Amino acid sequence: MPVDTLEFEEPVAILLKEVEAMRLMPHTPERQATIARLEARAEELRREIFAHLTAWQHVLVARHADRPVMLDYVGRLFTGFTELHGDRRFADDKAIVTGMGHFHGQPVFIIGHQKGSDTKQKIYRNFGYAKPEGYRKALRVMRLAEKFKQPVIVFVDTPAAYPGVESEERGVAEAIALNLREMALLDTSIVVVVCGEGGSGGALGIAIGDRVLMQEFAVYSVIPPEGCAAILWRDAARKMDAAEALKITAKDLLGMQIIEEIVPEPIGGAHQNHAAATALLDEAIVRHLAELTAMASADRLEARYQKFRSIGRLGQAFTDESPAEAAPVPPESSAE
């Protein structure tokens, strides 16, 4: 079944329509050769287009309806997955899935946002918008992982935390803040994968890890571009400008040392080939998990702390050698 093309893939879409039309005709050696030539040209065009995507086009790829979601990866990467439900305080949030399974024979705990892959599932999963009980459920499972000394693998894919009244009433900000603190101190290996949208505190609430990996066409940002444009320019139509300013692509974030590695995707994005995307992700997780397992607990925790403590230092504007330039001291008040 052909995958829907995005708006900027129009040249590819034209070629694929030609291929589809030719497949309905009687098969002949000449026609098969033409189809093969058109498919090769479509793949070449797609490779060229995806090599030069804008930040907003990355957002469109990350939101593609056919992009693999957490449970797609869980089904391919892990064996014996058993889901764990509930935060033991209020309810079971369907937007965050937690559980345990085996990864290449090693017991692991798995946590992640689940958006759903069709309309019915998306409604059931609240489109990946997690509520406080989701973050509390995640923390409960992380503490189980620490207790049994098993690694945690996290999949981040959410537009943001749920902003509704009931979410605020039950303390979503407190739940996220607590997770940030506890994940920084959690005494077990944590590998985080940003596999779709990494939106705002909703993403960060389960994304403090020893390694933060990001798929090639995923995005990770303090706010969705539409929301940023509405706040800065009071015009959501300027979402493209906002996407560029936010520096939300994997390449941007690797350059700022927010993430450790960009995980490649198949030509045209993970939605084009779920199996190939999973294989590429599998290799990266195996490698980073092996490195973390070999580290002493104290060294791993210190490295995690230093990683997040260093985020936000830009250039040499603030240095110990020039404190006066970094933070001018105001003149004493005449009242004193």
List the helices and strands and how they pair.
Elements: H1 10-23, H2 29-50, H3 55-62, H4 70-77, E1 79-84, E2 96-103, E3 106-113, H5 119-124, H6 132-147, E4 152-158, H7 165-169, H8 172-185, E5 190-199, H9 200-204, E6 211-215, E7 219-221, H10 225-232, H11 239-246, H12 250-255, E8 261-263, H13 274-294, H14 297-309, H15 323-326
Parallel strand pairs: 3-4, 4-5, 5-6, 5-7, 6-8
Antiparallel strand pairs: 1-2, 2-3
Describe this structure in words.
There is one protein chain. The chain is an alpha/beta fold. The chain has a single domain (59-309), classed as 2-enoyl-CoA Hydratase, Chain A, domain 1, CATH 3.90.226.10. It is built from 15 helices and 8 strands. It has helices at residues 10-23, 29-50, 55-62, 70-77, 119-124, 132-147, 165-169, 172-185, 200-204, 225-232, 239-246, 250-255, 274-294, 297-309, 323-326; strands spanning 79-84, 96-103, 106-113, 152-158, 190-199, 211-215, 219-221, 261-263. α1 packs antiparallel against α2 (29-50) and α4 crosses α13 (274-294). The longest helix has 22 residues, at 29-50.
Q: Low-confidence segments, ≥5 residues, pLDDT <50?
A: 317-336
Shape annotation: globular
CATH class: Alpha Beta
Number of E-state strands = 8
Based on secondary structure, the structural category is alpha/beta
> How many structural units, i.e. domains?
1
Oligomer: single chain
Number of helices, counting only DSSP H or I runs of 4 residues or more: 15
Q: Helix share of residues? A: 40-55%
CATH superfamily: 2-enoyl-CoA Hydratase, Chain A, domain 1
What is the string of helix and strand elements?
HHHHEEEHHEHHEHEEHHHEHHH
| Beta fraction | 5-15%
Distance between the termini: 77 Å
Q: Under the CATH scheme, which architecture would be assigned?
A: Alpha-Beta Complex
Largest sheet: 8 strands, mixed
